[in-house]
Design goal:
Blueprint: E1 2-6, H1 10-22, E2 26-30, H2 33-42, E3 47-50, H3 59-68, E4 75-79, H4 84-92, E5 97-100, H5 105-117, E6 127-130, E7 133-136, E8 141-144, E9 147-149, H6 153-164, E10 169-171, H7 172-180, H8 190-202, E11 211-214, E12 219-222, H9 229-279, H10 284-295, E13 301-307, E14 312-315, H11 319-326, E15 334-340, E16 346-355, E17 361-369, H12 374-406, H13 408-418, H14 436-486, H15 491-522, E18 531-534, H16 535-545, H17 547-552, E19 556-561, E20 564-567, H18 569-586, E21 592-600, E22 603-609, E23 628-629, E24 636-637, H19 641-647
Parallel strand pairs: 1-2, 1-3, 3-4, 4-5, 19-21
Antiparallel strand pairs: 6-7, 7-8, 8-9, 10-12, 11-12, 13-14, 13-17, 15-16, 16-17, 18-20, 21-22, 23-24
Helix pairs in contact: 2-3, 6-7, 9-12, 14-15, 15-19, 16-18, 18-19
Main location: membrane
Modified residues (4-aspartylphosphate): 51
Domain Histidine kinase: 465-630
């Protein structure tokens, strides 16, 4: 039986997985809701053990999406939320059971076995077929194209994982966890070696490659053949060239055939003119003699000439043509026919009535067989086909060469980008040397690198400033404890030390709280709640709170304007309080501190204005850096501005 645990607490998930594995189950572990949903939708499990309070996507939404997608895998909720309302909500969403934390593992195991006995889950596939690869999961046998392939147990497990997850990119960490049940160390190439050995048995002896390593994404992928841009363009160019050349060849062939037919009818018309000249003058017997002498040496043309009384003057026509001549219409002038005979041959027929100089008429029927052109047309077709194939191959080869040569700047750009690492963020791509089509891409990437470099520098400075903030209380506690423990002390001395440590711990807790607020402010979607907030009410409550401090420092507090936003009330309150605290601390006595609220053009602006000693020019760029400490002062700038900008989303 295969189970899926979705639990964000590492120790709880690890212990659950260990206990269930020891109970004889195959267990996958996901640490957040999105990963759990992905595994549940893409894998085949007999039971899902699901927590409720999960990062990225909570358990309620995970279950709702599973049921909405038609997945009826049994789900057991395992959560610290133990109220009746939570239990009812979980069961109504489609859960099969609900167990509250803390729990006894024996009870959990009993519930798991009970759910599995119901047999609601779909069994795993006994045969997995990927192209010509067949994996028999019952007998643990592998065949490809009818050929038996011998694999070690780990190689078989790895292949089964890739086959079941075909079409997906599997990270190395997931492969290591599923196959070896351990976390993958990114500094080793164990997974690469395993994939290479498996590929040697599965792919090397076959034309179609099933296992593809996707570089840069730390994963192996089954059944995802990839084509390079050069190959795609070459194939596309070859296809287009072949189609165009084939169409051109067909057009040339049809044009040549049409010209030959036109030549045949032209020759027949010339013979008609000759017949008219020969038939003018003389008796009927003389006409027949002249026609026989002039036309008798044209074996490739059939003639049938009769006078106006129906008397044949000259005829070399077949019975079919003679029959057609006897059924001539009364209004016959000139008619052209293309006859296809039973043997497949084609006759071009010209049938007309000719007036003579003496007032009499002749009815003439001439036919010419196009078999004389058949050999030429056949040779022409063969030569045309050879020319088209040769031209298509040449176009494909030349097109491939041109495409690869054209893509050299892209490969050069890729080589440059590959050389940029965390220690070389100052390097930039050569946008000026790139073609016009790639110049914008290079400039965009350079802009991204500049932002990454700036953010990386800010992160480094933030880490140093944060370390300083944390180091101070930790150093205080260590020093105090070490000094107190150096010699025996009185109870009052120990009590005083504990109180001091508690004060430092409170300071650490406040720092951690600040970090949590900053993290939430950086992710608007992760805000605990959004509501309509009237900023004038928030500012008024803060002005009332700071009024005593303002009176003590001889400062006047007032608010101007009003605005409303959608945001988190607590974070807005905290951000404005931070601004006011700094303004009061550095304002000159006897001056006003004014909070201005403005709302215009879909934006809200909060301005806190005070009069005091100007901020040094070298500090201004760092004014909104978090945990930045001005070395010459005893206070630290902790700017809420980025948080405020993120929380105040839109006006009312």
């Amino acid at each position: 039986m295969k189970l899926l645990i979705v639990e964000d607490e590492p120790k709880t998930g690890s212990y659950l997985r260990q206990g269930l594995v020891e109970a004889g189950y195959v267990v996958d572990l996901a640490c957040d809701g999105l990963d759990g949903l992905h595994l549940a939708q893409s894998g085949e499990y007999h039971l899902v053990i699901l927590d409720v309070m999960l990062p990225r996507l909570d358990g309620w939404n995970v279950l709702s999406r599973l049921r909405a997608g038609g997945d009826q895998v049994p789900v057991l909720f395992l959560s610290a939320r133990s109220s009746i309302a939570d239990r009812v909500q979980g069961l109504e969403l489609g859960a099969d059971d609900y167990l509250a934390k803390p729990f006894a593992f024996a009870e959990l195991l009993a519930r798991v076995r009970t759910l599995l006995r119901r047999g609601q889950a779909m069994p795993l596939a006994e045969r997995i077929v990927v192209a010509d690869l067949v994996v028999d999961t019952l007998r643990r046998r592998v065949e490809r194209n009818g050929q038996r392939i011998t694999l070690s147990p780990k190689e078989y497990t790895l292949l089964e994982l890739l086959a079941r997850r075909r079409g997906e990119v599997l990270p190395r960490s997931l492969i290591a966890s599923q196959v070896w049940d351990m976390n993958f160390d990114s500094d080793t190439n164990v997974i690469d070696v395993a994939i290479r050995r498996l590929r040697a048995k599965i792919d090397d002896d076959f034309v179609d490659k099933l296992i593809v390593t996707v570089r840069g994404r730390h994963g192996a992928q089954c059944m995802r053949p990839r084509l390079s841009i050069a190959t795609r363009l070459t194939v596309l160019f070859a296809t287009v060239a072949t189609v165009v050349l084939a169409a051109l060849g067909v057009a040339i062939y049809l044009s040549a055939r049409h010209d030959l037919v036109a030549q045949d009818f032209t020759e027949l018309e010339n013979k008609v003119a000759l017949i008219a000249d020969l038939a003018d003058g003389g008796a009927a017997g003389q006409r027949a003699q002249r026609l026989a002498e002039a036309l008798g040496h044209h074996p490739d043309i059939e003639f049938h000439i009769i006078d106006e009384h129906g008397t044949p003057l000259f005829s070399t026509a077949s019975p079919l043509l003679r029959k057609h001549a006897r059924t001539q219409p009364a209004d016959l002038v000139v008619r052209r026919h293309n006859w296809t005979l039973a043997d497949g041959s084609c006759l071009h027929v010209l049938h007309l009535r000719q007036p003579l100089a003496d007032g009499s008429t002749l009815t003439t029927l001439l036919a010419i067989d196009d078999a004389r052109h058949a050999a030429f047309l056949q040779r022409f077709r063969h030569l045309l086909a050879i020319a088209i194939v040769t031209a298509a191959l040449a176009s494909s080869l030349l097109g491939g060469y041109v495409v690869r040569r054209t893509l050299r700047p892209l490969r050069a750009l890729s080589d440059e980008a590959r050389q940029i690492t965390a220690g070389r963020l100052q390097r930039r791509l050569s946008a000026d040397a790139a073609p016009a089509e790639l110049e914008q891409l290079a400039q965009t990437l350079n802009g991204m690198l500049a932002r990454l470099q700036q953010d990386f520098a800010r992160l480094t400075e933030f880490s140093g400033d944060l370390a300083h903030e944390l180091r101070t209380p930790i150093t205080n506690m260590l020093t105090q404890v070490q000094v107190v423990l150096a010699h025996p002390r009185s109870n009052d001395a120990y009590r005083e030390t504990l109180a001091s440590c508690a004060e430092e711990l409170q300071r650490l807790a406040q720092t951690v709280s600040d970090l949590l607020y900053l993290a939430q402010a950086e992710a608007p979607g992760a805000l605990p709640s959004r509501e309509h907030v009237a900023l004038e009410n928030v500012v008024d409550s803060l002005l009332e709170f700071y009024s005593l401090l303002a009176e003590d420092r001889q400062l006047q507090l007032r608010r101007e304007g009003g605005a409303s936003v959608q945001g988190n009330r607590l974070m807005l309150h905290r951000a404005i309080a931070n601004l006011l605290s700094n303004a009061l601390q550095h304002a000159t006595a006897g001056t006003p501190v004014v909070v201005t609220l403005e709302e215009a053009a879909g934006q809200c602006r909060i301005t806190v204005h005070n009069s005091g000693r100007p901020i040094s020019a070298d500090i201004l760029p760092r004014l909104f850096d978090r945990f930045y400490r001005v070395m010459a002062q005893a206070w630290a700038w902790r700017s809420p501005a980025p948080s405020c900008r993120r929380m105040a989303v839109r006006p009312r």
